Amino acid sequence: MLAIVAAVLFLIAFLINAADIATNDIFTSVNFMLVGLALLALHVAGIGSGWAARGRRR
Q1: Closest among 28, 39, 36 to 9, alpha carbons compared
Q2: DSSP letters along 1-45, please?
Q3: What is the pLDDT of residues 15-33, one digit of tens each?
Q4: How far is Cα 48 from Cα 52, in angstroms, rounded to an integer?
Q5: In angstroms, rounded to a whole number, what is the distance separating the alpha carbons of residues 33 and 17?
């Protein structure tokens, strides 16, 4: 789930950068990319994955 949100943020950052949209200091393409990278790092770390391998039940 976090990887999907990160991909959407990367898309928004790309569109802001490609269209050369003037935004305020908070909504810049670099900030969107940094938040996307943080979410991607959390996804790779296993946070927010939903399923956890806790062992086998018999």
Answers
A1: 36
A2: -HHHHHHHHHHHHHHHHHHT----SSS-HHHHHHHHHHHHHHHHH
A3: 888 888 887 877 888 888 8
A4: 10
A5: 11
Torsion on CA atoms 11, 16, 19, 23, rounded to nearest 10:
160
DSSP 8-state secondary structure symbol assigned to residue 48: T
Token digits for 43?
A: 């996804």
Q: Residue 47 in contact with residue 2, Cβ under 8 Å?
A: yes
Question: How many degrees, rounded to 5, is the angle at CA 23 between CA 12 and CA 36?
Answer: 30
Verdict on whether the full-model pTM lies above 0.90: no
Q: Among residues 5, 12, 15, which one has the least CA distance to residue 38? A: 5
